Every structure is written in C-alpha cells, then in structure tokens.
Amino acid sequence: MRRNALIVLLAVLASAAPSATTFLPLSFEQLVEESSIVVYGRVVDVRAQWTSDRRFIESVVSVTVLRGMKGEAGETIAFTVPGGQVGRYINIIPGSPVFVPGDHAVVFLTSRGARLPVTTGLTQGIYRVHRDAASGDPLVVPPVVATAGRIVRGDPRRKPVSLATFEHTVRAAARR
C-alpha cells in the first residue's frame, strides 16, 4: 500500500511541468515595433522601491532625453526595471538591465496603462552608448542576446555603430 502511494506521488511530481522564464530574442524590427518610445539619453537617477504589493523590488530610472527617435518624450522620462536594493533587501532578476547615474543609452520602452513604461524585452531594449576613444563620437553597442547557437567573439552583429547611423536605422524601422 505504501509503495503504491509512493509510486503515485513520484508520478505526479514527475509529470508536473517545471517553471522557468524563457525570453525569445526579438528581431530589431520587432523591438522597434513593440516599443512606444525610443530615446537616447543620460541616466540621472536610479531609485529602488517596493512594488505596490510589496512582493518585489523594482528600480525607477530617470533619464534626461538627449534625442528622441520614436514616440513622444519630454525633456526627461522615467521607467521601471525589475530588481534593485531597498535597505538590506536585494532583488536580482536575471536578464534585467542595471543602470547607474551617468550611463548613456538608447532605451526602447513599452507603455502599459497608467504605470511607468518598462524596457522592451528587458536587456534587449537597452543599447549602451560609449564614446569612441579616437574621435570622441558616440557609438551604440548592441546588447548581447543569447540566440540559438554559440555566442561568437567578434560577431559582426555586435559591432558598434555611430549614433547617427543607429538613429537612422530606428527611424527607418519605425516607418515600415
């Protein structure tokens, strides 16, 4: 009798689907299409807070908009990313972008009702911007997105491009 109960219990546990979060990478066109706002800006503030139900921590990121590429954005914009630290509590979310004041990035945002916007596709919607060492021009660096196959060092799809070229690409994709 006990053995039958144990077998039934093991069968039930084995048949339960494991839960995991999987993000399928968006194509660049999908990223632009699903984003209501795309801006290039400088992070001026990052403030972690509890969600309204106090189950998770999220960070509110405030950005000074240096250039709008899609949608309507004012001089500043705020959005949320999952994770952060409030007091002694830390919430780390794999795949969630992390910001510090002074960061420059092109941010793809999705609006959902009355809440603050969120980054489209978590880290997929963040293109970091760095200055070229020789010329000082801003260069947009595509995010590392795990796709089928291996991540290859020197992948031409990860080559930095000028901010002007990137902006032209975003606007062209938005027109389609």
Topology:
Layout: H1 2-15, H2 28-34, E1 37-50, E2 57-70, E3 76-82, E4 84-86, E5 89-91, E6 104-110, E7 118-119, E8 126-131, E9 138-141, E10 161-162, H3 163-175
Antiparallel strand pairs: 1-2, 1-6, 2-3, 4-5, 6-7, 6-8, 8-9, 9-10
Describe the protein:
There is one protein chain. This protein has 176 residues and is an alpha+beta fold. The protein has one domain: OB fold (Dihydrolipoamide Acetyltransferase, E2P) (Beta Barrel). It is built from three helices and ten strands. It has helices spanning 2-15, 28-34, 163-175, and strands at residues 37-50, 57-70, 76-82, 84-86, 89-91, 104-110, 118-119, 126-131, 138-141, 161-162. The strands form two sheets. Strands 1, 2, 3, 6, 7, 8, 9 and 10 form an eight-stranded antiparallel beta sheet that branches. A two-stranded antiparallel ribbon has the order 4-5. A hairpin with a 6-residue loop joins strand 1 and strand 2 (57-70). The chain is globular and about 45 Å long. The mean pLDDT is 85.
Question: What characteristics describe this protein?
Answer:
two-stranded antiparallel ribbon; OB fold (Dihydrolipoamide Acetyltransferase, E2P); 8-stranded antiparallel sheet; 35% strand; single chain; 3 helices; alpha+beta; 176 residues
What is shown here, in short?
With 176 residues, the protein is α+β, with helices and mostly antiparallel strands.
Tertiary shape = globular
Tally of distinct domains: 1
Task: Quickly count the helices.
Answer: 3
Mean pLDDT: 85
The secondary structure category is alpha+beta
Main beta-sheet annotation: 8 strands, antiparallel
**Annotated CATH topology:** OB fold (Dihydrolipoamide Acetyltransferase, E2P)
